[in-house]
Amino acid sequence: MDEQVSDGSPQEIPGVLHLDMDAFFASVEVRENPRLAGLPVVVGGTGARGVVAAASYPARTRGIRSAMPMATARRLAPDLIIVPPRGDLYREVSAQVMTILHDVVADVEQISVDEAFLDVRGARRLFGEPEQIAALLRRRIREELDLPSSVGGSVSRPVAKIASARAKPDGQLIIPADRTADFLAPLPVGAISGIGPKAQTALERLGVHRIGQLRDIPPATLARALGPRAPEIRALADGNDRTGLGRRTKDRSLGTERTWDEDLTDPDEVRRRITVMADDVARQLRRGGFVTRTVVLKLRAPDGTTRTRSSTLDQPTSSGERLREQVVALWEREHSSLPRIRLAGVRAAHLETADGRAQQSELSERPAGWQDLESAMDRAIERFGAGSLGRGSTLDGAPRTPGRAGPQSPESAPGGDPSALRFP
Ligand SMILES: [Mg+2]
């Protein structure tokens, strides 16, 4: 389905769209309180280790970014307006955005609270070319919800995401198939979501700073710098990526991670928190239709010492109970050498698509899952509003906008811990 083709012909339709709300939480707050319009507004925690969850564009022009410590943001803009997050409101607006998308396009894959990929190739007869569909979606979101959004479009999912980032704020950018390589060439390699800081450093050592330069590197050299993903990234740079909607599971992982305001010193408390995370990861697996064999626990002490330990299961699973057992066993082995914990993360790696049996257990678990999810959300919002915003991310290092997928279909549970994030 996601095979690579290489003709890059202009006839190919750039029908993979990535729609992303602009400064989502901040835009919602400005809508609710129009006196904030044009001012440097951030949503986030005000505690000692509070971080910026979303920054309005006037705040961004002052250098403020999501995930920045609030103390830094305050230094950059002494007149900064800090609004505590209102998770229920964002979740509700998120659902309204997704309703508009589903209204126009059949094939929608929500990837976080404020972004989705859409395949609009089937919507063309009704609504026109991808440019017109992107404009229609943005117009409806503006008219019905009074919020700005941006859209990128391409023949390829990762390129659509890069394009939407370039279209911001309040814009759209659709890249024709035969212009893909030229569009990417001048962009920094870090614009590719699979290239984290580590890979970026490896590429810089080769003198590669821009995506176009990836094309000049011999494949073996590139493989040494980027590992097994090298061919995929090279194909992207060449304009030959044709990844569409639907998740590829190979080399995929998902997880959740939190940093606390205060060190955790009570082993029972750490155990309790990592089991909550394990449950959350299990829910993410079930919601995505995945199972995992590899459970990873990451722990960080206040001095920065980090332990990453994994265990491999005999049978792939999406069971919260199985994941809890694994992370607790990993924790038992480490906790005597890490008496104080500042950060913990739980990740499921090497995902596989769930088989029929796993799907069934998902169905039978759904009613309980709903309630769990709701209470997890409530707990998260309490913590989130009280001090720091837990810095969620996939554990493989790609920074993400805080927020996680809300409803993906009428059957899936709404909302989620705003600090826990989905992988793309
Ligand atoms: Mg966004």
What does this structure look like?
The protein is an alpha+beta fold and 424 residues long. It is built from 14 helices and 13 strands. The protein has 3 domains: 10-174, Alpha-Beta Plaits; 185-237; 254-386, DNA polymerase, Y-family, little finger domain (Dna Ligase, domain 1), CATH 3.30.1490. The strands form 3 sheets. Strands 5-6-1-7-8 form a 5-stranded mixed beta sheet.
Keywords:
3 domains; Alpha-Beta Plaits; five-stranded antiparallel beta sheet; Dna Ligase, domain 1; disordered N terminus; 39% helix; single chain; five-stranded mixed beta sheet; disordered C terminus
Task: Give me the count of strands.
Answer: 13
> If you consult CATH, what is the topology of the largest domain?
Alpha-Beta Plaits
Distance between the termini: 18 Å
- Gyration radius (Cα, Å) is 21 Å
Domain count: 3
**Which spans of ≥5 residues are poorly predicted at pLDDT below 50?**
1-6, 356-424
The oligomeric status of these chains comes to single chain
The CATH superfamily title of the largest domain: Reverse transcriptase/Diguanylate cyclase domain
Beta strand %: 15-25%
Proper CATH architecture of the largest domain: 2-Layer Sandwich
